[in-house]
Design brief:
- It comes from Nocardioides caeni.
- This protein is α/β, with parallel strands linked by helices and about 180 residues long.
- Helices cover about 30% and strands about 25% of the residues.
- Strands 1-2-4-3-5-6-7-8 form an eight-stranded mixed beta sheet.
- The longest helix is centred in the middle third of the chain and has 16 residues.
- The N terminus is likely disordered.
């Protein structure tokens, strides 16, 4: 299967997924809220990411925090790479969930390579816990954290500073350098 092809299947408890890219590539779990309302548009984005980045992109059609956790299990179990070599990119509230997942990965018994929060903000809660994002704590895990500067650049900058101060490798990505957006044309 090449990057432009996608396989759609049902994963844990009937959660629908599309998988884009080569099955032997590193796995990226893409949490995009528009997967609920514009699944074809988000699938095109996933295919574009897979093709340009040489990644296997797992795209769940999620509706709540339970679906996000089930998608982690599916991405880990369906990967040919070690299950802790997973990266997660989340948009909006799912970006907050990706950050929370990084904070709680030891408690959940998983490992992550990288998490990226796109379009996050102080007013968004983690859909997995229903709570605001906790302050980062020092951790012995090597997970890298990216926050894309978007609608709330002050929040993005403060968030990266907090993660860096807590000992995480954290980067602020300027909005104009982040190209993983839905095509609106």
């Amino acid at each position: 299967m090449d990057a432009q092809q996608a396989a759609t299947s049902n994963g844990p408890e009937g959660l629908e997924f599309s998988v884009h890219g080569h099955p032997n590539a590193d796995t990226l779990l893409l949490w995009h809220p528009d997967a609920r309302t514009d699944p074809e548009g988000v699938a095109r984005l996933a295919s574009r990411i897979a093709g340009r980045s040489n990644l296997r992109v797992v795209l769940p059609r999620w509706s709540d925090g339970r679906d996000l956790l089930r998608s982690v299990r599916f991405a880990r179990e369906s990967s040919v790479h070690p299950p802790d070599a997973l990266s997660v990119v989340g948009y909006g509230e799912a970006g907050i969930a990706a950050l929370s997942l990084a904070l709680n990965q030891r408690r959940l018994g998983i490992g992550l390579t990288r998490v990226t929060c796109v379009d996050g903000g102080a007013d968004l809660a983690d859909p997995i816990s229903g709570q605001p994002l906790n302050d980062p704590t020092p951790t012995p895990v090597p997970t890298e954290v990216d926050v894309v500067e978007a609608a709330d650049p002050a929040w993005a900058s403060a968030t990266v500073e907090a993660w860096s101060t807590a000992g995480w490798t954290a980067s602020l990505i300027p909005a104009d350098q982040f190209t993983w957006r839905l095509d609106t044309t």
